[in-house]
Amino acid sequence: MPVLNVEKSDKYPIFPEGTEVNVRVEGVKQQESFFWVDKNDESKGKQQELSYRFKITDPEYAHLTEASLFGSVSPVTPKQGNKSYNWACALLGAEELEVGMAFDTDELIGLEATATLQRYESKAGNVGNSVTSLHVK
């Protein structure tokens, strides 16, 4: 029988719940979320979300060159007080955004903020971190 040795992974560390790290946006895409627009009427389809991919920019984690963090916001449209609005404010370095302001999500790529992380466990049992909130760096 093969013998399995558990090894530490510095490539994809698991951060404690609530850890804050500085991040840079590497990608943003709009996609279907896991949630229905109306759970009582699936014909209305699934909600849309913006899915963000981040790289950690803190010098102490410079060795994590292959690790990415992910986070998503829904609804896609930033409205005062929702998560999409709060993330846009943090990335654009603004306390608030003017109603009617428009920007392309490509403009967010390369911008930096401080992220608060949460731990998750997938249905397959994998454990990892995702971004739960963004704050002005």
Compact overview of the structure:
The chain has 137 residues and is mainly beta. It has one helix at 83-92, and strands spanning 20-36, 46-56, 69-73, 112-121, 127-135. Strand 4 and strand 5 form a beta hairpin.
Low-pLDDT runs of 5+ residues are none
- What is the overall silhouette? flat
Gap between N and C termini, in Å?
A: 52 Å
Indicate the mean pLDDT.
Answer: 87
Give me the count of strands. 5
Percent of residues in helical segments? under 10%
Largest β-sheet summary: 5 strands, antiparallel
Describe the structure in your own words.
This protein has one helix at 83-92, and strands at residues 20-36, 46-56, 69-73, 112-121, 127-135. The protein is 7% helix and 38% strand. The longest helix is centred in the middle third of the chain and has 10 residues, at 83-92. Strand 4 (112-121) and strand 5 (127-135) form a beta hairpin. The protein has 1 helix and 5 strands. The protein has 137 residues and is mainly beta. The model has no long low-confidence stretch (mean pLDDT 87). A 5-stranded antiparallel β-sheet has the order 3-2-1-4-5.
